[in-house]
Amino acid sequence: MSETREEVILAGISVRALAQSAWRTGYAVHAVDAFGDRDLAECARTTLGLVRDLATPYSARAAAEAALGWNRPVAGVAYGSGFENHPDAVAILARGRVVWGNRPDVLTRVRDPLRLGRVLRRLGFPAPAVRASPPTLTARAWLRKPRRSGGGQGIAIWDGGPVPRDQVLQERIEGVPGSVSFLADGRRAAMLGLSAQLVGDPAFGSTGYRYCGSVIAPGGPALFDRQETVWSGAAALVSTLTVEFGLVGLNGVDFIAQDGVPY
Q: SS3 string of the chain?
């Protein structure tokens, strides 16, 4: 008798890790990503590589539209990194399906850097100033960042001049870059781990503010000054953001740790 599994659709630039997890959990996987490579095929019932199979450059929208081709009942759909910048693509992926993750309206709100900054400051959390226009007089240093950011790409020191509509200015905070991963159900958050980020390290082929890895040392040396305080601050932050924005699924927040405070 053949094995019967509930089916799930996964989409992202690379979904191998998601697919392996889903397959081990007992799901039959249909996966679309940029590559559709061999190790993905080993844990997926069907695969579609946009570049290889469709000769199409990868984008979140292209992946979502390709996933519509699997017009069949599934237990759910999940998306990988990068989709959070494209709520319209998530909306395509979600047509008639249950989304395992944040829905488009949630992404639209939480991925707005101006809104996020206002919410954090209103709730009393330390956060860098964010603005859409050049400051008049300021002693602060500012970073110029894309609104649809990811992996530190496109971030640079602001040296004056206008701010394009697809970018914002964010106050530059000195400290150690870090990240927290957590699971959420819209009401509660469970911390999974705290890591220090490697940024712009030429030893890993990186420059500027580009992300190039993470370091986690459970039971080892502290990654941050006053690490317990950083942990408790991050826990309070993710719990509050979960309730304020209705976050669900696997989420992450990047921060700069300075004197035990995650900004």
A: CCCCCCEEEEECCCCHHHHHHHHHHCCEEEEEECCCCHHHHCCCCEEEEHHHHHCCCCCHHHHHHHHCCCCCCCCEEEECCCHHHCHHHHHHHCCCCCECCCCHHHHHHHCCHHHHHHHHHHCCCCCCCEECCCCCCCCCCEEEEECCCCCCCCCEECCCCCCCCCEEEEECCCCEEEEEEEEEECCCEEEEEEEEEEECCHHHCCCCCCEEEEECCCCCCCCCCCHHHHHHHHHHHHHHHHHHHCCEEEEEEEEEEECCEEC
